[in-house]
Amino acid sequence: MMKVANGILMEKMVADEMSGHCVRKLNCDFMPEETMEQQAFGLVGGKISNNILSVQMVVPLYENFRYDESLRQDMNEAIMNHSIPSELAVEERAWIASPKEVQKALALFDKYDLSLIGSYHMHHENSWNGVQSKELPSKLDEYLARDSEMVMFIVYISEFGEAKVRAFYEGKLGEEMEIFLK
Ligand SMILES: [Zn+2]
After folding, report:
1. Among residues 5, 54, 122, 156, which is most buried (max CB within 10 A)?
2. Tens digit of pLDDT for each residue in 45-54?
3. pTM, two decimal places
4. Distance in Å, CA 137 to ligand 1 centroid
5. How confident is the model over 59-77, as pLDDT tens digits?
6. φ/ψ of residue 58, rounded to 5
7. Cβ neighbours of residue 142 under 8 Å, at least 6 residues apart?
8. How many CA atoms lie within 13 Å of 161's alpha carbon, on the beta-carbon side?
């Protein structure tokens, strides 16, 4: 998707589902089929009309595919070269969607005549050290989203468990898209 929309219209129910997924993972309330870590990642389905991008569905993903042997090394290198130091070990950061789960989500979007327009993931107080706002994409996020033609939704969960969602085209700080809840 090229950046043709200026704003994002999101159903409150969909925003709540996104935030609920993140809060649940942060609280370590895992489901059996889920990678057990305090990270949350999901896909976002929607459509564009009249310069407004409307988000209608989110699909939380379960398996973090970055632990797959074929990808592990590349991702570790990207993290070491591009991320802000964190308390978390390099191995415990970042998410790669499992191809199987992506297939399933795309089929679901197709059924409802939606397109994959982006992804969401969680930031929280311990995502990295230092003063840079956790509501914003990190350098690593921007690196991973370059040329994706997708919207990156950052769900920030505060230390009090409150969620705030912001959206950035291709994870770029200068390309924030305003979200309107309906
Ligand atoms: Zn991030």
Report:
1. 122
2. 999 888 889 9
3. 0.87
4. 5
5. 999 988 777 766 667 767 7
6. -125, 145
7. 170, 171, 172, 173
8. 8
